[in-house]
Amino acid sequence: MQKVDVVVVGGGIAGLTAAIYAAKAGKRTIVIEKQNRLGGRAVSNKKKGAYFNLGAHSLYKGDAYATFHELGLTLQGKKPSAFAYGIWKGKLSALPSDAKSLFTTPLLSWKGKMEFASCLMKLSKADTRPFDRISIREWVEGNLRDPMVRNIFYSLLRAASYVAGPDLPAAGPVLRQLQNALKGALYLDRGWGELIEELRKKASDLGVRLVTNIKVSSIDTRDGTVRQVLCEDGTRIDTRHVILATSPAIAYELVPFAKQTALHTWKEQAIEVTAACLDVALKRLPKPKQQFAYGIDQTVLFSNYSRAAYLSDDGAQVISLIKYQGKDADPEKDLRELEGVLDLMQPGWREELVVKQYLPRMTVCHDFAHMKRLENPGPAVPEIQGLYVAGEWASHGEVLVDAATASAKRAVRHMLSLEGKERNVFYEHRGII
Ligand SMILES: Cc1cc2nc3c(=O)[nH]c(=O)nc-3n(C[C@H](O)[C@H](O)[C@H](O)COP(=O)(O)OP(=O)(O)OC[C@H]3O[C@@H](n4cnc5c(N)ncnc54)[C@H](O)[C@@H]3O)c2cc1C
């Protein structure tokens, strides 16, 4: 029997962030991860000299970026050029990304160009909270007139949310993500695996125990209070605080009588978002100018990550393509569509191919701020003292990894607030962004 102050279940970005903040507050903390390495969906794999994430990953200037800076991570990488093509009716046209492309793009009429530029300018400074309870479609149709301007906005907001259709996502959070994207996303050198390594080191320096290859099988919550964590290998850990940094479905499974708790609502209301991800490393680009494209009438994205990040040891170009999927996705069809996008952007790419990775149905998020949501999950499970949740699905209006870090900090903050220790840990480095 071991005894600690906090057990974090799950060693992805949410779990590691929660563990770091708990340890900063002086809590004896352990992270238990069932895989043989930390990182969850943010790991990277090196294949034939090229670094591949589990699909395209960009770090926007939101909560995660601010948190990682606050923690002193170095985050090596660069902002890519914003110049982009749009894919419309099987052809490439420059999208309006600066004054020159706005002037020359054949996609928009003069009136459309004026509307696009003025909307983007207004949006960059707008308070988006009034749009938290309307869908992306309602926002677009209520704020934009020109049909092509609408199409382009749908495609930008799809890339910001990873959700294929505009009816489910609440507009406010996705518009904030777009505002963050407009400040410039960061492509990380050697992929997000480097970020995980930095988080691992930080946690370890703060004395967090990091255990891999052990699966938590249940949480003992007798009399409505956290008592023990039980693992599949028979390990039992005595604790009063557990942060479940897993999916909502796993969090539900781990807790006895979860049906009588908010975990049931959070699992039932969750809508999973998936994407087909094709990553390739090419010896060289057949069309060096064609590095980035948004699908306008196709739910796809193409980006050469090597234009801003160090992603191969021998100069190979690492390109990520995404197919945003709906409920009835067909991974074989998605692969053909993504290869078609590669044919369009980089004709002859097959002759330059070093290595390829296809992930037919990746879970991008287990849940998000959508129109059918009954309540925001966490930070505490109200029925069980000492039980908390974190993860990108436990969003209170943040998107993707920003929701992972924000929910992790909310969980620790809630835990500490019961002891009056909140201030020292969270407010010593204010004003990062
Ligand atoms: C294709 C793709 C593209 C993405 N692009 C972006 C992007 O551009 N920008 C962005 O901000 N975000 C992006 N994301 C999202 C980002 O990767 C996630 O938000 C983030 O990695 C989620 O971290 P997490 O800790 O919440 O969950 P996870 O990484 O899933 O971690 C949960 C961990 O819990 C462990 N676990 C589960 N059950 C148990 C158990 N019983 N015992 C012990 N351990 C357990 C799992 O093994 C896992 O490691 C993308 C994701 C994908 C898949």
From TrEMBL:
Its cofactor is FAD. Keywords: Oxidoreductase. Residues 13-416 form the Amine oxidase domain. It comes from the Bacteria. It holds the Pfam family Amino_oxidase. This is FAD-dependent oxidoreductase. GO terms for molecular function: oxidoreductase activity.
